[in-house]
């Protein structure tokens, strides 16, 4: 087993661990706003880790470049998407009423 594959497995395990913790947080945390915060690491941290692991495993070339680009897009768009979902949930609450928790 090459060193490259070992690093890929470590990155993949870290990405999967972040996804599992985010999924567990969805079950445990109360209210929609806390759940939105649980989803943010899944999109902005786990996806780039998994993409980096896959890019390392495929080796140099076009496929690795595509995977790195997908990971970068996920890292940049994850927080924006989380903000949009939270803002939409906030606006969906009735005026004068406390937002759902």
Tell me what you see in this structure.
It is built from 3 helices and no strands. The model has no long low-confidence stretch (mean pLDDT 86). The protein has one domain. With 101 residues, the chain is mostly helical.
Feature tags:
0% strand, 101 residues, 3 helices, mainly alpha, single chain, elongated
What layout of secondary structure does this protein have?
Blueprint lengths: L2 H26 L3 H27 L3 H31 L9
Helix pairs in contact: 1-2, 2-3
Total number of helices:
3
* Estimated radius of gyration: 17 Å
Helix content: over 70%
Low-pLDDT runs? none
Structural class: mainly alpha
Shape, per Cα inertia axes: elongated
Quick summary of this structure?
The protein is built from 3 helices and no strands. By secondary structure, it is an all-alpha fold. The chain crosses the membrane at residues 6-29, 36-55, 67-86.
């Amino acid at each position: 087993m090459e060193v490259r594959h070992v690093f890929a497995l470590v990155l993949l395990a870290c990405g999967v661990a972040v996804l599992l913790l985010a999924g567990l947080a969805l079950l445990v945390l109360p209210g929609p706003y806390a759940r939105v915060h649980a989803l943010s690491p899944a999109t902005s941290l786990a996806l780039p880790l998994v993409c980096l692991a896959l890019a390392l495993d495929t080796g140099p070339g076009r496929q690795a470049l595509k995977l790195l680009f997908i990971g970068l897009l996920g890292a940049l768009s994850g927080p924006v998407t989380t903000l949009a979902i939270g803002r939409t949930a906030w606006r969906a609450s009735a005026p004068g009423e406390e937002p759902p928790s």
